[in-house]
Write a sequence for this structure.
């Protein structure tokens, strides 16, 4: 690659090389300029002259995408960008009469045809002779700078000269110089070289959840997730918003212990699989199962017997912790008492206060806690000898 002095160096080298067209005895004294056609030759000027005008710079279609990508996903530079350019020149001949101008142009074209490319020694000599391009490193560019005629129709030449309305058309031709590679110094980040390549082939085994037992579970209980293709190198169970490590992993069964802090309510379950890839082996994303759901019930942990007077506050210890955003109420048989909304920003709590209305009927009621539609379980009598066998018997609260 070259630094940004490369374009000026090409023009300088070409100009100095074209100056050798008049070194022989046939056409001595040919001067070379590099200005636009309307200022290249004064009206009173005489003698032989070549004007090399850079009228267009374009990207090289063959190399413009060779340096992509140059940045990683974080936007950090990982490779020095390289600008690949083609230079388009207009070569015009001047002399005291047209026949001599034609001779001068033919001499210059023959010289460029013989050369075909700028040698590194030519470029170094031009840099030493011209202080304005001192510091150019074009001579060290990997690609050679090649010169070739660029065919242009009469219409194209006419359009080009029409941009200079203050001058008349003179005999001219166009040349393409390619390729100039420009790159400025950058502090790029480079990855370490690859020591070994690993190739992995594995079947597509999408995990599928078919059932969750129990469908209604209390906090800290164990779920049994049945399905197919559940086993993998690394298996994680996503319960709600929590990632939980399973207790047992089999191809058709996964068991997991629910976290104590998991909020009550309808809760989603998904199996997430990862595969071990690399040296050393590290987990990489694999496949996710379908989403299943179960109901996590709240639990009233207040010891009985529970009693509260009308127009007083019933305080209950509950699990798991209840957040402010959850909808909470207690059910006394079929009667409901909702909790008063807590202030914004309140932390999850394990103790709830319920205001018992002054007009609430007295008596003993079956007590249930409802959180986001999930209700705490009632106790069923399992002793066949009791008259309440197979009936709900607790927990209860007495309103006095």
């Amino acid at each position: 690659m070259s630094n940004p002095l490369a374009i000026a160096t090409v023009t300088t080298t070409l100009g100095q090389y074209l100056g050798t067209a008049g070194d022989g005895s046939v056409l001595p004294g040919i001067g070379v300029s590099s200005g636009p056609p309307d200022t290249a030759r004064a009206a009173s000027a005489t003698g032989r002259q070549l004007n090399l005008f850079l009228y267009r710079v374009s990207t090289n279609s063959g190399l413009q995408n060779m340096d992509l990508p140059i940045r990683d996903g974080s936007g950090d530079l990982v490779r020095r960008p390289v600008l690949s350019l083609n230079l388009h020149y207009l070569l015009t001949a001047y002399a005291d009469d047209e026949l001599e101008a034609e001779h001068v142009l033919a001499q210059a074209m023959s010289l460029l045809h013989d050369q075909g490319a700028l040698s590194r020694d030519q470029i170094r000599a031009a840099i030493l002779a011209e202080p304005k391009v001192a510091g150019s490193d074009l001579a060290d560019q990997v690609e050679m700078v090649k010169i070739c005629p660029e065919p242009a129709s009469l219409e194209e030449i006419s359009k080009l000269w029409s941009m200079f309305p203050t001058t008349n058309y003179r005999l001219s031709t166009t040349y393409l110089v390619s390729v100039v590679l420009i790159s400025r110094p950058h502090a790029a980040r480079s990855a370490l070289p690859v020591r070994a390549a690993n190739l992995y082939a594995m079947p597509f085994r999408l995990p599928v959840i078919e059932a969750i037992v129990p469908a209604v579970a209390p906090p800290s209980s164990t779920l049994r997730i049945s399905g197919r293709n559940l086993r993998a190198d690394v298996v994680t169970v996503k319960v709600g918003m929590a990632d939980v490590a399973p207790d047992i992993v089999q191809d058709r069964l996964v068991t997991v212990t629910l976290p104590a802090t998991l909020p009550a309510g309808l809760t989603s379950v998904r199996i997430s699989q990862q595969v071990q890839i690399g040296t050393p082996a590290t987990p990489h994303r694999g496949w996710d199962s379908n989403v299943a759901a179960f109901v996590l019930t709240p639990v009233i942990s207040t010891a009985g017997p529970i009693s509260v007077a009308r127009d007083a506050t019933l305080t209950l210890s509950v699990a798991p912790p209840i957040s402010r955003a959850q909808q909470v109420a207690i059910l006394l048989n079929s009667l409901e008492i909702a909790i008063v909304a807590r202030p914004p920003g309140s932390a999850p709590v394990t103790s709830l206060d319920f205001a018992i209305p002054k007009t609430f009927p007295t008596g003993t009621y079956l007590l249930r806690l409802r959180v986001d539609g999930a209700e705490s379980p009632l106790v069923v009598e399992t002793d066949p000898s009791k008259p309440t066998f197979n009936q709900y018997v607790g927990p209860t609260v007495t309103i006095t």
